[in-house]
Amino acid sequence: MRRLGRWVAVALAAAWLAGSFGVLAEAKTRIVVAAHYGQGQKDFLLPYFDEYMKLHPDVELVYQELTFADYLQTVLTARMAGQAPDVYHLYSLWGVQMQQNGVLDQPPADVQKLVRETYVPSAVDSVTIDGTVWGIPTEINNYMLVYNRRLLAEAGYSEPPGTWEELLKVGKAVTQKNAEGKITRAGFAIERGWDSIVVHPWMALLYSEGGQLFSDDFSQATFNSPEGVRALEKLVATFEQGLTDPNVSVWDFPTGTIAMTIMAPWYENALKSTMGERYQEIAVAPIPPGPAGLRSVQYTFYWAVDSKSRVKKEAWEFLRWLNAARDGQGSRMGQMLITLGAIPANQADIAAHPDDLDDTYTRPFVDALAYSVAEPNVVQGQEIKMVLMNYILKAYYGEMTPKQALDAAAREVDDILFEYY
């Protein structure tokens, strides 16, 4: 009996210890961070998670990887199920929908002040809704004319086109077809399957023509104005004049069979990794301007915190640390973006990495931030962009004229806007 008593005592002590350690484990602050960075990208972010956890042993950072295509729907569904992450890395176009649905926590006053004072102005615009900053900008992307110098030189041109008329002329000179009439060397490439790559180049031309997407109060679409139609006519002309066709893909640009396209800075790593020494053939120039002058369109990613998170205070502390500029080094987040070949939105990061941002590919994008226009923060922005993509493609394929396509898109977009404005 004495032996049995001792075993009971040992078992009770073990149970008490297990319970105690369980309480300690539960006391650890767990912050779930959702982002779209996948293999080969998150590897440059996660070491900073480890660094922070070593500095703060009471904090556990958990990375939740979500695909970009499914990100918005996934987080909204998870939130309805009570399983939302604590921290989001958002595409700026999703911000209004999430903010109006009460998903986002309003950042502390010091965070808003930091963003307004130290970030690129167009990036600040991207994270501002109704006058309030809703997150910390990270990666900035705008659009420029990316071209192959070798192909232009072989066609007799030493400089990129400065007008759209010159672009069509140069593109036609470069284009080659086989005996069956199939394009084997394209003067221009336009992508078809991704909304951003379809819509953003047209938006850049729209702004350069002097147009706007919406009325100032967002109650009506205005992109079907004469300026919007002229912008789409420019792109449709690359099809009509034989510079490209639906079989020519932007993703074939590294093969050296495409002379020009309109693309973003993040494409640089893909070009470097696939082209090898031939990467030296690639250069970047402004998109040929319209009457309003040089313009580009720009979108941003940003960190935000869930309004129902139980660890909001700790989440913002982590984000402050991750995005804080260090003496002469910029921020940790900025270093991660530089490593990926992206442009950071923090002006301290841009200043801290002049060599990385001064190559012939990236520098024109950085310079163009001065005249880049932030993608508008409008409710149901993603849905609206999909409508635009579908009708722009109809114009490319000759199923509608540019005016017909944009008029039809405007009618659908007006119906969407009517529900919210």
UniProtKB/TrEMBL annotation:
<dbReference type="InterPro" id="IPR050490">
    <property type="entry name" value="Bact_solute-bd_prot1"/>
</dbReference>
<dbReference type="InterPro" id="IPR006059">
    <property type="entry name" value="SBP"/>
</dbReference>
<dbReference type="Pfam" id="PF01547">
    <property type="entry name" value="SBP_bac_1"/>
</dbReference>
<protein>
    <submittedName>
        <fullName>Extracellular solute-binding protein</fullName>
    </submittedName>
</protein>
